[in-house]
Structure formats: C-alpha cells, structure tokens
Amino acid sequence: GFVSNVKDWWEEPSCVRFFERLASFSRLILFDKRGTGLSDRVAEMPTLEERADDIHAVLDAVDSPAAAIFGVSDGGALAALFAASRPERTSALVLYGTIAAFISWFPTAEELERFLRLVDDTWGTGASLARYAPSMAPDARFRDWWARHERQGGSPGAVKELLRMSAEIDIRPVLPAIHVPALVLHRRDDAAVTVEAGRYLARHIPGAQYVELPGVDHLPWVGNSEAVLAEIEEFLTGTRPAAEPERMLATVLVASIAGATPLALRLGDRRWLDLMERFRALARREFERFRGRELSLSGDGFAARFDGPARAVRCAEAVSQALAPLGADIRAGLHTGEIELAGGAGVAVQIASWILPRRCSTLKHADEHPGDTHCGWHDGHGFQPPAGAAVVQRAAGLDAGRRAERSFGPGRAGCPQGALPHDHVRHRAGHVRRAGD
Q1: Strands 182-187 and 209-213, bridge-based pairing
Q2: What are the distances in angstroms from CA 211 to CA 90, 171, 182, 279?
Q3: Of 11, 13, 8, 7, which is closest to residue 305 (Cα–Cα)?
Q4: Is the Cβ–Cβ distance between 425 and 363 less than 8 Å?
Q5: HSE-up of 420 (CA within 13 Å, CB side)?
Q6: Is the N or the C terminus of the chain less surrounded, counting Cβ atoms within 10 Å?
Q7: If we measure between CA atoms, which residue out of 171, 23, 174 comes closest to residue 98?
C-alpha cells in the first residue's frame, strides 16, 4: 500500500481479522516499503526497480523460494513489476485497488497538489480516511487508529516525497510481460482509485482474472472484506471457503465505569478525559492479553467477545485491578451462549448490559443447562438468576479464581451453606471450578 506500519496493523481488529484469514490458507509475509513504517528511513526515495529488489531481499531473508505477491494500491504496481521481472520467484499475482499509471490515482496535477496541501495541514489527524475508507469516517475509534497509522507510517515530508516519486509510476508497457497467474480485484466505487484502473489491468495482463466488487472503501480490510478474501483464497487454493457461520458459542463481556457520573463531576473535565483515555488503552491491552475481540469501546464502557467465560472473567478482573490505582472501578456483565456474529453479537450484548444496574459485589455464575451459561446476583433475599446474564465486580479480599473454585452445599434462603451473602456460586453439581485455557 501507500504507507504502512506492520506493527500498527495488529492494533486494529479489522486488520487482524483480514491478515489472520490470509494466514489461514497461506504463509503470510508482511513488510513495510523502504522509507515507511518500520523500514529504515532513506535520504532519497527509492525507484520502483529498487523497491522490487527489496521484495527479492525479503523473500531471501525468510527462505521463501517463491510467493504469491499481493499488491494493494500503488503497491500493486510494485508487485506487478516484480512478477514481470522475476517470474521464477512469483507463483501468482494478486492486485487490489491497483494503479498501472499514477493518473488513475490523481488524474490531474491540481488534484495531487491539493492532496499535498492536505498532507501539510492534516497528516496525522486521520483526515485522509475520507478518501481511503469513507464508510469508516464516522467511526471515532477507527479514525483515531488511522490518525496514528498515518503518523507511524511516515512523516509529512516523507509522504510528500513518496507521492512525488509515485507520480512517475507508469507500468503500462510492463503488463503484457506478466506471465504468472494473476487476479485483479477492484471495488466499483473505490473513492481513491477509479475502477477503470482495475479494468485496464485486467485487459492488459495476459490471462488475468478480474473480479469487480461493490463498495467505496479503498482499504481491503474494511467494507465487505470477506468477499475480497474469498476471491483470493479461491484463486490461490482452488477452493472457495465455506460460508462463515452466523452463530457461535462465545462469552460476551460488557463493562462500564462504576459510578461514572459522580466520578466525572468530582474529577472535572480534564482529569475525566484523561481517565477515559487510560481506560480505553488498558481495556484494549487486556482484550489482547486474554484473546478477546473488541465489539465496541466508547464513552465509559466497552463490549468484547471471548471464546469462554474464564478469559472474560479474568479480563474484567484485570481491568478492574488496573483502574484501582486511578480511583475507579468497573461493573461488568457476562453472557455465555450462542451469539449472532453479525451486528456485534446481537442480543448477547443486551443481556450482558441488562445486568449492569443490578446491585452486587462479586462474581455470580451458574450453569443451568447445556446451551447457555445463566448467571445472576444475590440481593440479600436469595439467589436471583436472570436468563443468560452474569455479573463480575470486585469483592474485598476475594478474587475471581478463588470464588469460582469454592465449593458449596445447599443453604437456607437460597444462600450457600457457610458462604457470605455476596459470595454465592451456584451449579447443578454444587461445585464450580475455574475453566482452563
């Protein structure tokens, strides 16, 4: 692509899903072009031929005798040149949103100059998202990540130099010399590169397959990225992937800052905003640590999906413990059962959210039947199990592991025998143990 940072890609869930899907049917090799991202900065931007030599060097470094080269945006021109000049190292060529000539990217000198001024004024703020992923422009979290990606991909000066070098790209004479299997993908309403660029490539690369997809986003991992991945997988493996399941067994964790309103009033605007920044950063850190997938993270709350309740509980406890030195805590709800993959886990998030207002101070967890894990709270009058919900909050002197491993016999008024009122764990077999990883 245009600019990149291979480390920062793994901070964005949509990128992670995209690359993990590619890696599910291939050995995935990623690198930043010379002068961008984690690659060394250079005094002068290299030519396209020198960048092709870099691909050769990367393949040598990872002991890959030949690879399917996947080029995105102006990186596609580099990939095409490599395929034409080094067919023995290229098993296949995949081009997405690619240009053969710079005029397909910026049709006029005036349009390029306008973008260069935009780089001067706004690079690092995420403003270019409107061009590269307009469907994500309203998403504040994605825009923040894109702003950071701009800054980590290259400085404004490096970006302008790269664009001026790219203005010389014209590989149209090279296309007939490509004699490896080739797939050209392009979104019909791509906001950054006209679809005519993809059609031109397909017409002039001998034997190329061309697939035109709906959508406006230039970034392949946003929009209907699964359609892009399915075409690539079928082209490279000969097998079209089975349809993704619409439902799966998972645990949804929903949490928010406990007592957010009075806490915000006590802290004041600046300290509250600082706390929210810390909260979001540590939440994402714990999602990654416990293999969770972020569903939403905004305001003073978040929702995340885990492959089982043990990791979700530990994630909630870790967030709670990390917030304690900042004078804050969370309340959290869990739902374990079949969830809808589309629409952010659907009703599972609503079930987990519904339990948050309940008054409770510990983990309550019960397995009522095989399909779902149903959980409830103790309100001083006995155990109250709502359908499909759980609550996690910290209890003085008790951690989630010890509470989950404690065994109880039957007690009076719904309370476990010998248990504190707010230390209730109920299970059909009378015992709950912490699930293993």
Answers
A1: parallel
A2: 21, 21, 11, 43
A3: 13
A4: yes
A5: 13
A6: C
A7: 171
Q: How many CA atoms lie within 13 A of 52 on its CB side?
A: 18
| Residue 391: closest CA among 405, 403, 381, 406 | 403
Going by C-beta distance under 8 Å and a sequence separation of 6 or more, which residues neighbour residue 328? Answer: 257, 258, 263, 275, 279
DSSP string for residues in 260-321: HHHHHHHH-HHHHHHHHHHHHHHHHHHHHHTT-EEEEEETTEEEEEESSHHHHHHHHHHHHH
Q: Which two tokens stand for residue 167?
A: 């203005």
pLDDT of residue 34: 67
Are the C-beta atoms of residues 303 and 295 closer than 8 Å to each other?
yes
Q: What is the mean pLDDT of each run of 10 residues along the chain (437 residues)?
A: 74 90 92 66 69 89 94 90 95 94 77 83 87 91 89 79 78 94 96 93 96 96 93 93 68 85 89 89 88 82 85 89 88 76 56 53 36 37 37 33 29 33 29 32
Q: Evaluate if pTM is beyond 0.85.
A: no
> Side chain identity at 435, as an amino acid letter?
A
**Strand 67-72 to 90-96 pairing:** parallel
Residues in the chain: 437
Query: Among 74, 67, 82, which residue's Cα sits nearest to residue 27?
Result: 67
Q: Please identify which residue in the block is written with the tokens 């949804």.
A: 252
- Residue 90, token pair as written in the block: 């290229």
